[in-house]
Amino acid sequence: MIEFKLANKEDINQISDFIAEINKVEESNIGFCGIDNNEIFHSLIEDITDIPFYKSFIIAYQNEKIIGVLGFDTDFSSNNVEVWGPFIKESKWNIVYDMWGKMIERLADEIELISMFINKKNKRCLSLVENLNFNKKSEEIIFNFERRNISKLLGIPNIELSPIYYQDMESLHDKVFPKTYYTGKEIIERLNNYRKVFINTENNDLAGYIYTEVNPRFGEGSIEFFAVEETQRGKGIGNKLLSMALKWLFTFEGVNDITLCVNSENKKAVELYKRIGFKQTNQLCYFTKSIKNNEKM
């Protein structure tokens, strides 16, 4: 007999181990959920905050063993949820629609959009979103840069964002990323020893910026946003900014590699990342579905 229950705080280790086991296989991989159980443990506690995981994750059991996990990360600022899963044992995939229905019941009334990042090789999930009438928005490439490739980076000094360029950086960010999770002003407010913006200037004018974050405790580093003024593109500024960010991230001993995501249609960015030394690891498909209150009932 299969039982479904809402997760509780004490389930976090079991959930983390189960997701890591399923997600490390490309054919069952969901993007951005992690493949290391410690990383997943950290994400469940630190990143899923608007509605905690123990109020948003459904667990399926058979003979007292986990056979499936499905949940969501809520963002009330955009009335959006990003789905974690479905992570289900291959032989038990027939429970997916029951789990989906139980997850939907947990959504807050404010939620208007569901999003999913699915590995291109995850055929079962791709079939699921087709049957659930999701819309495919884009294909994304996941790139990885390893510490051992530091020698490929440009030997240039890092230039941090200073107050004189705050307004220019805000304007560039909000122009290139008009509807995203941080505005330019919010990025500036977040700056500290573990969150940095590096810039490139031409004739004392801001030509581009890159925003990066690190979590030394877990050996995690990320490049969050990266933009160059349209009139300054094609001059090698992107290479300079990436070199600054990567060199800074690898000053933290526990950071061994950096992963980032780029739209596969952005050919120039793809070529730039490859040229610098990033290696393609996965391809994801990004899907969304608009929902109304009566669909949550």
Automatic annotation (TrEMBL):
Superkingdom field: Bacteria
Looking up InterPro entries in the UniProt record yields:
Acyl_CoA_acyltransferase (IPR016181), GNAT_dom (IPR000182), MshD_Acetyltransferase (IPR050276)
Residues annotated as domain N-acetyltransferase: 156-297
Please give the Gene Ontology molecular function terms for this protein. Answer: acyltransferase activity, transferring groups other than amino-acyl groups
Give the matching CDD domains: NAT_SF
Pfam families per the UniProt record, alphabetical: Acetyltransf_1 (PF00583)
This chain's protein is named: GNAT family N-acetyltransferase
